[in-house]
Structures are given as C-alpha cells and as structure tokens.
Amino acid sequence: MNHPMYKIEIKAFLCSIEIEVNDIPCFSYYNEPQIATDIPINNLLFNSGRQNVKFRITPLFENKTFNKESKIELNIYVKDANDFYLKKQLIKSYTNNETLQEKSFFESALVFEAILPYTIEHSFINYSFFSESKDHLLLEVYKQYEILAAFIIKNDLKNYNDFTKIRFNDFATAHYLDEIKRNYYLNKALDSFEGHNLNLISIREYTLKFCYNGKLVYLEKMRNSPGLILEDVNSNEEQLHFIESAIFYRNNAGKLLLFR
To answer: Has this prediction a pTM greater than 0.85?
Structure first.
C-alpha cells in the first residue's frame, strides 16, 4: 500500500471502554449500551514497527460488575487511504469469549506491526513530569486549556492554528494530506464550534493525568473523554458539549506545548 491507513474497529456491548495506542489516549466511550465504530490511529503511529494497543472496559453507570451479556470486540486493520476499491486487511482481533460477569473491570492489549511510508518526529518528548508538584502542574495545564478555549470561543483561527501546529502537522503527515487539503482543514478548524455559547468547565471537575511513561500530561473529567471540555451554556438540560484532545509535553525551555 502506498498510503496505509490503520484503524481500530470497536464493538462494545453493555460496557464502557478506554483505548490507548502507544501509551497515548486514543478513544473512550462511557455509559452507552452499545457502540460500533472505527477510529483512525495513524497519528499515534510514529514509525514502522511494533505498535501497542491497550484497552480497558468497565461496567456501565454505577454498576459494580459487568452484565452477563457484556461483550467487547476489537479489530485492527489497514486499508489504502486513497484506494476505495481495495479491501481492508485484518491484522489483529480480540473478542472476549469468556463471560465478564462478576468482574469489576477488564483490560488487555494487542500488539501489531505497522509498515509506514512516513516518520513522525517525537524525540523531543523526553522530559518526565513525575518529579513535579501535581497541584502546581494541574494549574499550569489548566491555564493552557484556558488559552486554547479562548481561541475557540473568540473564533481566533490564526492563534488556534499556531497553538495546535504540532498536532495538525502530524495529522497531515499521517493522513497524507496535500497542500490543498492541508489549507482546507486549517481554514475549517473552528467551524464546528460556530453558533454555540461555550464555556470551559471548571478546574474542579478535572483530574491530572499522565501518559507516555510520564512524559505527556493532560486533564480528564471522570467518565468523559480526556482533554478540553467546552459546554454550551444555552443547551440547558441537553448538556451539549465539545471535547478536544489537549495533551502536552514540556520543551527544553520549560514551556508546555500541545502535542496531541
């Protein structure tokens, strides 16, 4: 394949699920009876070779254990991004054949080999946050969330694109975007937020989280996908909200920069 696109197909029934690819959060889905979807993961595959997928499932809502019918199926496959007629190739699969009843959680992992025509530079992610004060770091990361949220709320496309430059450039590389498509996505980056009266959720709702062996940091609200959560204040009981990935590393100058 000239442009291999790797995806995880997820089928979950009567359970919540969290997935990491190469120790970075990739997908999460909570408190819905079932889901069937597939998620592109190229932007978390930095180079050819061994790739790691970890997944964890938990019971729905406040249940202490799984329903006897709870099921999980994961399929990792690859397909050429630009060839709609070429069939996808299945690489790895997992299905729980045993009952999960009486268990309070379940986790496992899949390993597969990827062949990629690109390399995503990530050697600059070498600083570990583990020695830092968690209270101070929580405030520092939330400040970055406030900055990013302000760009979104004010529809400040230029500063938003500057802030998310690393994430977007890696996305463009991993999805084989040409210059025309790159510019298209850059110009459309904030379109989904238009027409909403958005506010960033309070710092009190967030918990500090680490990944990538403590070299990446982010915030997460319990039972929500990790990252920036903007709520539409006009949605009332509907609780309409937007969640955007916002995972940071610390550069050699000591500054937090957005990676994913």
So the answer is: yes
What DSSP designation does 104 have?
S
Q: Is the pLDDT of residue 238 over 80?
A: no
Distances (CA, A) of 222 to 42, 204, 206: 27, 11, 7
Give me the pLDDT at residue 237, please.
61
The structure tokens listed for 59 are 């019971």
SS3 at position 213: coil
Q: Which residues pair with 137 in a beta bridge?
A: none
| CA angle (135 as vertex; 131, 139 as ends), nearest 5 | 115
Residue 149 has pLDDT above 90, yes or no: yes
H or E element that contains 159 = helix 157-163
Read off the pLDDT of each residue in 147-169 and give the average, rounded to a whole number: 98
DSSP 17-45: EEEEETTEEEEEE-S-SEEEEEEE-GGG-
Distance of alpha carbon 49 from alpha carbon 21, whole angstroms: 13
pLDDT tens readout for residues 79-95: 999 888 888 999 999 99
Give strand ranges (E) for the chain: 4-13, 16-21, 24-29, 34-40, 49-58, 71-80, 89-95, 106-114, 198-200, 206-211, 216-221, 228-232, 241-244, 248-250, 256-258
Burial of 152 (0-12, 13-18, 19+ CB in 10 A): buried
Distance CA 14, CA 84 (A): 33
The pair of structure tokens assigned to 76 is: 């990792």
d(CA 39, CA 95): 17
pLDDT-derived band at 10 (thresholds 50, 70, 90) equals: very high
Secondary structure percentages of the chain, helix, strand, coil, to 5: 20, 35, 40
